[in-house]
Structure formats: structure tokens, C-alpha cells
Amino acid sequence: MLMERLYGLDFLRGVAALVVLVMHIAGFAGGHLAVDFFFMLSGFVMARSYEARLRDGAISPLAFAKMRFKRLWPVMAVGAALGLNVAIAVAGVSADLFVAFGFALLMLPGSLTVPYLLNLPAWSIFYELLANVLHGAWFARLGNRALNIMLALCGAAFVASFEVTGFPRILHETDLAMQVAVVFRALVSYLIGVLMFRRFGDCAPVAVPLAAGAVLLVGYIALVSLYPFPFWPVPFVALVAPLALMAGLDRRAPPRLGHMLGEISFPLYAVHYPIITAVALAGLGAGTALVASLSVASVWLIGSRWPDPPRPAPAAA
Length: 317
Known about the structure:
The protein is an all-alpha fold. The protein has eleven helices and no strands. The longest helix is centred in the N-terminal third of the chain and has 31 residues, at 61-91.
């Protein structure tokens, strides 16, 4: 069954991708929260698009995993190839770089200490795929009660991980403990997204305007970047991101702007990091990195099928 496209979610996905882009250009810790919003969106959209078919056997868990891999692979392969060329320009050709490239093409971590050598943002794609695999093989068949218990366990592990690793996130160098801790971070947001769709579908229980959701998303990230209070990601995951997701269900979202931001969001996320690195190596500034990243991501708009503009309501007789 063809489902209505939710242009508000597309819009907010694009906003979150822009936040990550600006974070990597300017440097501010709170921008990492945009990735948690991506995880939540993924849980919501996968539940919306596939969960019923996973439950009734119309799609097997293996077919679902293959479908997700094929959907993500082309853009991530471009990001990996860009990263490989930048790394060769910095360090020259080496066997280690081509091993890292092989892992990047498989969308897998390449080592325990430097798992995403060529394109750092690829870490979140690995964890999103992991959540997708668990969804297809297990979560889709769990009732809401069991899924809530799973969410509570992952949430407790997520909060506890602060004591061991700090905020679980993958930087250039990491270790096994951090990579395990990030599993719980990803699953908390993903499961919230799944449960949100199960509970209210496309009709948010609280009407949040799209603009308010975007301001809330960006405003909270700006706040915690300036004032990182203890456990600052927790209110975002528990309250801010769900409210922003509800805002994405606003049917008044501009379809063409939402479509554009939605179409470039994933390409922008996948390719911006090696582009920023290349621009820095060339001695160019932040503005060039911003324009270059957006320009490359905009290539994915070529040939895109744009939605028809909304038609005015007929005049009363």
C-alpha cells in the first residue's frame, strides 16, 4: 500500500542534516543530538512503512535487511570513495586505507580503535542498520508491553553508560566499550520512534506546528552546546525529539521545500565530512566547505520527482 509522504518529516530530516553539517564545520558538541533525531525518525518510518508486512510475513527479516542495505549503500559508497581520495591525498596510498575502504563499502566498523577512518559520520549508519535488522528479526513481532520493557532496559543502559564512557558517541578514536554503549543510545531513540507510530500513527496527540518543532530542535541543540548541563541528551531524547517528530506530522508542511530538504538530507550527511576535510586541506574557509557540501548533495535533486504545488480551494458557489 502506497502511503502518503509526510513532508514535515522530510523538512525536519533536512534541518537535522544541516545541523550536523554546521557542527562539523564550526564545532559544537550539541549537534550530535541531531543523530538521535535521525534514529527516532528511522524507527517511526520503518514501523510506518514495513512493520505490518514484517509481522504478517509479507517481507522476511532477511529481505528487509537487504532492502535497507541497498537503500543506504549507494550514497555511503560515494562518501567512502570521497574519504578514500582525501586520505590518499593526506597520507599516500597504503594497504590500511584500502582495507578501511572495504569495510566502508560493507558499512561496517573497520577496527576497534579507528572504526570509521574514511568517513566518520558512517558510524550512525551502521547503528541504524543494526536497529533495522533487530526490528525485522525481533521488534516487529513484540507487542507494545514487551517493546516498552525493551525500551526501559535500553534506557537504563544508556543513562548508566554516562558513568563509564560519558555521552556515548563515536569520534575519530574510540574503544570497544564506547561502541557497545552507542548501541543502547541508538536503540532508545529508535524504539521511541517505533512506539510513537504504533500508538498514534500519522495523527499526533499534540498538535505541534512544523516551525515550532524546527525551532525546538535547533534551539535545544544550541542551548546545550553553550551550557552542557549533566545528562543533557536525556531531555532531548525523552521530550524534545518526540515533540519535533510530532511537528513533522503537520499536514501544512510546504511540500516542495520539504521534498528538497528530504532529498538532500541523506546525501548531505553521507558526503559532507570528506568534503569539509578536503576544503580544509586546500586552505579554504568555512563558507567554501558549506557551499561545496550543499552543492554536491544537491546533485541528488537531479531527476527528482517534485510534488505538485497545492491547489487553491474552489470558490463557493
